[in-house]
Design brief:
By secondary structure, the chain is of the alpha/beta class. Helix content is 40%, strand content 17%. The protein binds uridine-5'-diphosphate.
Length: 324
């Protein structure tokens, strides 16, 4: 296949590039390197099946030419991370909405298969755990910046499904649940790279709130193979799928496990949310995916356990050259 990956220099994008190259696909990446990094792809420079375009996904002319030249688009280019969203709301909303508008409009001209990456954040404060794709989405009020991310991604979902309905665009929506693994940076607030680096430096491990909030962490290699699996299923088109893991852990337990696995002397400290983010920040207590739908269609089963994930992230940050 000829594959276009928007945001291919990012953490998840670059793992998807690797998986596609390994399958023998021809891979083209567009990335503006705003949060992604060329370093994530240096090992592919000069590879005959790999091409890189440094540009903004909102550049319609460039995106149009790249879309025309591929069979399948994985659309990952987006503003990432709760911290970035809270600190740069205008940029988040504009990047996430306008980029997807351009991409879908171009893909619709030639009916290319598009996989749009959305987020578990859209389930918001719903208490209906585990979250099912057809369940209600419960967002907080619009004065709380965090929800702009969910809203912008939801608009992307609506638009992709609308293109599918009205113009038969073969679009698939995936909602990713806390994807983690090597190459993820802690700069945008993500908890596992932050805890691992804090532990390796014997600095305090910063648990926000009382640490009773829980998450399920999906290993990036499992996540990208799930995405590739969906592209190959015509029945996935026009539909939404959760991707992640159902192994749930509280953030307090996570901090303890990271400390133990790194053999660190770090103390675990609790930081009030208002201090960690902006005042009035709202966190979700639990976020667990129901994976029945994707596993019915593709046989998807996450393979990595939380311990496997932590080992690989610890090894990544232990490698001498890694400074985040
Ligand atoms: N978190 C934390 N300490 C940190 C960073 C994050 O306790 O240094 C918490 C955060 O408040 C949330 C969870 O870890 O409850 C996961 O945060 P992350 O930003 O990785 O993803 P989110 O689930 O918020 O999208």
């Amino acid at each position: 296949m000829k594959v276009l990956i928007t945001g291919g220099a990012g953490f998840i994008g670059s793992h998807l590039v690797d998986a596609c190259i390994q399958r023998g696909d021809q891979v083209s990446v567009i990335d503006d390197l705003s949060t992604g990094s060329r370093q994530n792809l240096t090992h592919l420079e000069g590879h005959p099946n790999f091409a890189f375009t440094l540009d903004d996904v909102r550049n319609q002319t460039v995106v149009g030419a790249l879309v025309d030249d591929c069979d399948v688009v994985f659309h990952l280019a987006a503003a990432v991370g709760v911290r970035l969203v809270v600190e740069n709301p205008v940029k988040t909303i504009e990047t996430n909405v306008q980029g997807t508008e351009v991409l879908l409009a171009e893909a619709a001209k030639t009916g290319k298969v598009v996989l749009l990456t959305s987020t578990s954040e859209v389930y918001g404060l719903s208490a209906d755990v585990p979250f099912q794709e057809e369940g209600n989405l419960v967002l907080g009020n619009s004065k709380k910046g965090r929800w702009s991310y969910a809203c912008s991604k939801l608009l992307d979902e609506f638009l992709a499904l609308a293109y599918h309905r009205e113009q038969d665009l073969p679009a698939i929506v995936v909602r990713l649940f806390n994807t983690v693994g090597p190459r993820q940076t802690g700069r945008y607030g993500m908890v596992i790279p932050r805890f691992v680096q804090q532990a390796l430096r014997n600095e305090p491990i910063t648990v926000y709130g009382d640490g009773s909030q829980s998450r399920c962490f999906g290993f990036v290699k499992d996540v990208v193979s799930a995405m590739i699996g969906l592209i190959e299923k015509p029945a996935a088109r026009g539909d939404i799928f959760n991707i992640g893991s159902s192994e749930e852990v509280s953030i307090q337990e996570l901090a303890e496990q990271v400390r133990e696995m790194t053999g660190s002397d770090s103390e675990i400290v609790h930081v009030p949310y208002d201090q960690a983010y902006a005042e009035g920040f709202e966190d979700m207590p639990r976020r667990t995916p129901d994976l029945a739908k994707i596993s019915r269609l593709t046989g998807y089963q996450p393979e990595a356990t939380l311990a496997d994930i932590l080992s690989s992230v610890i090894a990544y940050y232990r490698a001498a050259s890694r400074v985040d």
